[in-house]
Amino acid sequence: MSLDEDRPPPDWLGDVSAGVDAWTRRATPGPAVEEGHSPVSRPSRRRGRKAPPPEDTATQVPQADPESVARKILLDQLTGQARSRKELSDKLAKKLVPDDVATRLLDRFEEVGLVDDEAFARAWVQSRQPGKGLARRALAQELRRKGIDDEVARGVLDEVDPADEEEAARALVRKKLRSLARVDDVTATRRLVGMLARKGYGSGLAFAVVKDELAAADRDPLDD
């Protein structure tokens, strides 16, 4: 008898499927799933999506107090140019700074000379009078819109030399005349006087300056 005949028969004898499993060492199947139930699967993981880290409260910056915010706004506004108190007050109000905080800081800025309506008005007049040729009447309106007190404005405007005001009017007329070369003298006179009126000049000075400048350009001005 051969050795193979002495061996006991294998467990899978007569069962082809079990025999294949034994020879290929295939993993033993998991527990059977009852009919009507789905097999339990592992939770799926989506690539590239991670749970957000917990909020780091230690690095949170506390909200700035209104006074610090208002002080920074004022310093930023005053960098590079002067501003009137009203302009600064309007800016703080737009940023929702409480009225009491705004008033306290503006008072303090005035005490140290960072806010000075008289100095602001003087600088404004010195730039607008020769630069734009504005008369004192027009300058007074601009200062009022800037929130400058009328008494302060009058004091500053009184410093304007009438001769400088007249010379600014003459410069405006000479410049405008170059574009009126093909306009008749009557129309030119009316346009020039109207321009000076819009710049704040009175009618007496306006007509006198226009008459002189038209005559100097060999043109016949309209009589007063």
UniProtKB/TrEMBL annotation:
Primary location group: cytoplasm
Q: Tell me the ranges covered by the RecX third three-helical domain, including all copies.
A: 164-210
- Give the location in the cell: Cytoplasm
Q: Where is the RecX second three-helical domain?
A: 116-157
Q: Which PANTHER family match?
A: REGULATORY PROTEIN RECX FAMILY PROTEIN
Function statement: Modulates RecA activity.
Q: What is this protein called?
A: Regulatory protein RecX
The beginning of the lineage is: Bacteria, Bacillati, Actinomycetota, Actinomycetes, Propionibacteriales
